[in-house]
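Q: Entry one of two.
A:
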Amino acid sequence: MSTIDSQRGFTILSAILSTDRNDASIDLAAAITDIDIYEHLDKPYLTGNFVFVDTHAIVQQINMMGIEKLELKLETVTKNVIEKTFRIVKINKAIKTNDRSELIVLDVVEEHAFISNAINVNKAYTGTPATIISNIASSFLEKDVQGTFDTFQGNMKVIVPNMTPIAAIKWMQQRATNKDGMPYYVYSLLTSNFLQLNHLGTLLQREPNNKDRPFVYSQAGIHNPVDVTKYHVIESYKQENTENLFQLISDGYVGARYNFLNVSDGYPEPVDFDVKKDVFDMMKNKNYLGKNQDNYNFPTNTKIKSNTLNEQRSKVISRITSSNLYEGFGDFKSYGEEIKKSDYNKQICGEAIKKHLAKSPLSISVNGAPFLITGSNLTTGTVLRLKFFDSNTFDDAENKELGIDKKKSGDYIVYATRHSFKIEKYDLNLLCTKIADYTGENL
């Protein structure tokens, strides 16, 4: 794995394994056989696995204990250099291949996540959820945050209750939405050393990376390859555990009544939630859904008894909140406080949107080399255009443009990514999600 191959698209410049306990360090680049690095929209750090062949008693020389540093440096075919620092979480496997060599599998986590695990935060913060997230990341993890900071909730005063820095970041992220109730995500990328902070509306309104050259899946491509000037090829795909509306109803994310109990005055503030009106209609009216992809991923006309499903109050959920806790001490709210009754609805909408976004996941495997060419992020948090042919055997087999599968096809947000660097090639597995189905005639 020492030279760049145009098909593979990368080389490992170095992979330095070291420890703070002594001066011992070693470059594993020549011994590595596989690297898997994972991004996830709901995780503000990377995880991964490194596989290498140990013929020099490396584990023994380093005296590996599960805290060692692994500094990875990759170079792409376009000379972009990617640098990431990980910490060893554990030795996942150690398999003897013969008497004098061993196959080692290491589980790793991005360094700031390991550091976070050893730190306790019990501190008061004042500011918007976005600025508090940025302050925690900077002061405890030495990580800068970039993205969209226009959180609706405004200034708050919170006391982080004995959490790790990353747990505190997630805690504040869960409280943040934009003015329309679109939830925020904090995540980390292989191609950037910044933490990303964006609300879902920002992600949905991005142009697809491959707008003019969709990813297409076609088994016919095995014998009659698709036109690679028009399409990228999906090598395989998988869908499982999808369309679980039953669970969403049970959890109160379709139709429910939420009672926000104000401990300051003892009165509940009832808020009725209707997913069609509060989520899907709102997203369409605010142009978060594309004009050719606005078929709600929800059965809007289905009735239970005499009411539509979204009008049923399937669950009553009570939450404790407060108001005017800091009245007279500054212009800010407590963690769960809202000024108006309608503002509580944004909390519910943010949670519901996340759940409905995860309702129809689709996992695809593709050649990863094109994703490293620009040096910018083309994976998690971006939009991809996918095309699938339908399963109607009565369509004209030569006129596949008429046989598009509108349920599977369309523009997807990349929710999670597995970067697989192997000796022979670089593959990507992309977990893609969408909140509405495609309605156009072609892609």
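Q: Entry two of two.
A:
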Amino acid sequence: MGLGAHFQVTHTWSKGYDQYGNPTGAVNQAPPTTVSTSLIYDKGRFNADINWDYTSRYTSYCSQCTEVPGWPAITDPFSWVTASVHWRAFEGFEVYVEGRNLTNAIARTYLNGNSLLPWAPGQLVGQSASGVGYGYSAYGRSYVAGVSYRF
């Protein structure tokens, strides 16, 4: 097949709502822009790819949806790099390695965009919410190696 490249730009234009009907996502602002770019090599028994995903800065919770009225939760831009290498030893049998978050990126969300005020949805009396993916989320690098066989 040879060397190939793939480039994709996606704009997300929808608003989400939390479990209480409060709007989340970009409110009265342009929604985040997401970009995914891949470079792919596939020839014979060997293929490799590297992928870069990016999300621009956006309002993740509206200014009426945080603990401080008038202060929205703003998520900083975030990039994620993944790479993998696959070797097909014979029909149906493959050996692979993959690295995720190779740049060791950290997702950050701040109250009113202030870098001194990390923010995540908390737990209020009578309510339950998870802050996973908000505040200061350090996922770390991860590596996977494996074999697969398809019948």
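A: Comment on entry two: Confidence is low (pLDDT under 50) at residues 6-21. The chain has one domain: 2-149.
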